[in-house]
Amino acid sequence: MNKPLILKLAILLVITVFICIVLAQIGGLVSERQARQREAAQSVEQSLAGPQALAGPLIARSCKETWTTLTDDGKKEVVQSRNFWLVAAPSKLNISGGISPEVRHRGLFKVNTYASQLDVQARWDRLDMPAPKAEHAGGRLACGELAIVVTLSDPRGIRTADLKLNGRAMALQPGTPHTAFRGVHALLPEVKPEEALTVSLKLALVGSQRLGIVPAAGDTRVSLQSSWKHPSFNGQFLPIERQVGVSGFTAQWAVSSLASTAVADLEAGKPLPELPRGGLVSYQGDDSTPVHANAGRLDVLAVELIDPVNPYVMSDRAIKYGLMFIALTFITVGLTELLTGRRVHPVQYLLVGLALSLFFLLLLSLSEHLPFVVSYLIAAGAAAVVLTQYAAAMLSGWLRGLSFGGGIVLLYGALYVLLSREQTALVIGAVMLFGVLAAVMTLTRKLDWYRLGGGERVGSAE
């Protein structure tokens, strides 16, 4: 190879690095918009209510143990105490209801919230309330009254709550016997231990994006339905039955106390589960060890109202394919230059690369106002038109320009397939790259690479 060709390759390498910097800047803008979207979600949660996790109804009472110990020198007595609570979970818990999605906006950003109407039925075959036990020598116990308790992640989301015990209305009060739990409670009247108890709760609840139920019962049955078309089921228990369609979803769960430690964990005072976006399990380390976001918390079954086409997630994924996209275009231009003898200036490569890069910025900005598919069509169409007319001048002919534009359209189509087919994106991308390599090898199979840059027109032999 001669010096002019080496110099041009070096310039193209510099141009590629510059394009990578441009793509990185656009990627940073996507990350910034994602952060602002999270801030918008937090703003809505602060003003309305956050993701809701529900545990109960339960029958509980708070207790306190006090005891006396001596100091290290044995000369002085010190009174110590501990607070705990005793819990009697229902033998059967049935929860049914609907989730009505409500989209709220903070500027350009939307946040999925919901209003749910839950019908909760809990039954105790008999009230087997654990007896308080002192854990220290000489410990003195003092316990409060029995109460029916419903705990929630964010009680601000309660709109209405009607509680009945054996068909009789009960007055609800804010708070719970345990300081670590928020929610509501009603004092339990005196009942016989062998008497069966039935508690019914009509609960109107609002929250943001995610709803979870703690299976704190001997047998838990949950049935939820919603008009939301894109649910994500997560937690420690998935539905035993579910149907997802254009009209929404229905799902049923069945959890036995043999499969969950929720009752014992409640009595131990473990906190309600957090409901992070995208599920409860993440992965850390080179060995991909699962890390549960709710380690040390109560078990939960949960549903999340997700957006399958989040514009920022889709734009971020598109930018990850940007370098490959631009490299394929440069290869196409280079092949055209080799096979036709038409020289293309590095500045023209730069302008083509910038046009392809700004497609991603245009896609991001449009998708904040329009559906992603519409935004993609507009951005891709604009880029294809500009590149087609520019290629017609660059390659000296409308036929070559239209052929180049057609290749760009195919690349945009392939990119959209990669974005929309997340589970098969790897195989599609691998097949596409192999096909491009095969086409390049076929078109250049008879080129004399030693003569490149020698001043003679180079082409394939007939």
Number of domains: 2
Examine the coordinates and then state which fold CATH places here, giving the name of the CATH topology of the largest domain. Immunoglobulin-like
- What is the CATH architecture descriptor of the largest domain? Sandwich
Beta-strand proportion:
25-35%
Q: How many extended strands?
A: 19
The number of helical segments is 8
- Net shape: elongated
Q: Bin the helical content.
A: 25-40%
| Uncertain stretches of 5 or more adjacent residues | 280-292, 457-462
CATH secondary-structure class of the largest domain: Mainly Beta
Radius of gyration: 32 Å
Distance between the termini: 24 Å
Mean pLDDT: 81
How would you classify the helix and strand content by structural class? alpha+beta
Pfam families: CreD (PF06123)
Protein name: Cell envelope integrity protein CreD
InterPro entries: Uncharacterised_IM_CreD (IPR010364)
Keywords: Membrane, Transmembrane, Transmembrane helix
Q: How would you describe this protein?
A:
With 462 residues, the protein is of the alpha+beta class. The protein has 2 domains: 3-36 and 311-451, no CATH class; 52-305, Immunoglobulin-like. 36% of the residues lie in helices and 32% in strands. The protein contains 8 helices and 19 strands. It has helices at 3-47, 262-267, 311-320, 322-340, 346-367, 372-394, 398-420, 425-443, and strands spanning 52-70, 77-88, 92-106, 109-124, 140-143, 147-152, 158-165, 168-170, 173-174, 183-187, 197-208, 210-213, 219-226, 231-235, 241-245, 248-256, 281-284, 289-292, 301-305. The strands form 3 sheets. Strands 1, 2, 5, 6, 9, 10, 12, 14 and 19 form a 9-stranded mixed sheet that branches. An 8-stranded mixed sheet has the order 8-7-11-4-3-13-16-15. It has a two-stranded antiparallel ribbon with strand order 17-18. It is elongated. The chain crosses the membrane at residues 321-340, 347-366, 372-392, 399-419, 425-443.
